[in-house]
Amino acid sequence: QVQLVESGGGLVLAGGSLRLSCAASGRTFSSTAMAWFRQAPGKEREFVSAVSWNGGSTAYANSVKGRFTISRDNAKKMVYLQMNSLKPEDTAVYYCGASRIYRSWDVRIRQSREYDYWGQGTQVTVSS
């Protein structure tokens, strides 16, 4: 079992920054890929960013590349998403996900069906 708790969301002006955090529990945390997805009202959940089990590989959606940075600290069982130059279209509920991808890195990291555990989500609102 893995439990995930997100924090760090809020209201920010366009161009501003936020840092999301995801606290994880569970023995397999350090062996699986972790990711952030987001869901805006009326839209499907979409991939934002992922990090490999050891932090050595990362991936980003084209819409956030160059503005967002994902990282993890396996000793603290934490995953972070630094979001800079925020835009109104970044407004969504952001979810942290723990995958079933064990010590591997491939195209599956962008697919929500590969993630077995999710946090409750944290709201990010970017106003113009």
User: How confident is the prediction overall: mean pLDDT?
Assistant: 95
| Helix-strand topology string | EEEEEEEEEEE
Q: Please tally the β strands and state the result.
A: 11
Which class best fits the helix and strand makeup? mainly beta
Q: What's a quick, concise take on this entry?
A:
By secondary structure, the protein is mostly beta strands.
What this model shows, in words?
The chain is mainly beta. It has strands spanning 3-7, 10-13, 18-25, 32-39, 46-51, 58-60, 68-73, 78-83, 92-102, 115-118, 122-127. Strands 2, 4, 5, 6, 9, 10 and 11 form a seven-stranded mixed beta sheet that branches. Strand 5 (46-51) and strand 6 form a beta hairpin.
Which SSEs are present, and which pair or pack?
Blueprint: E1 3-7, E2 10-13, E3 18-25, E4 32-39, E5 46-51, E6 58-60, E7 68-73, E8 78-83, E9 92-102, E10 115-118, E11 122-127
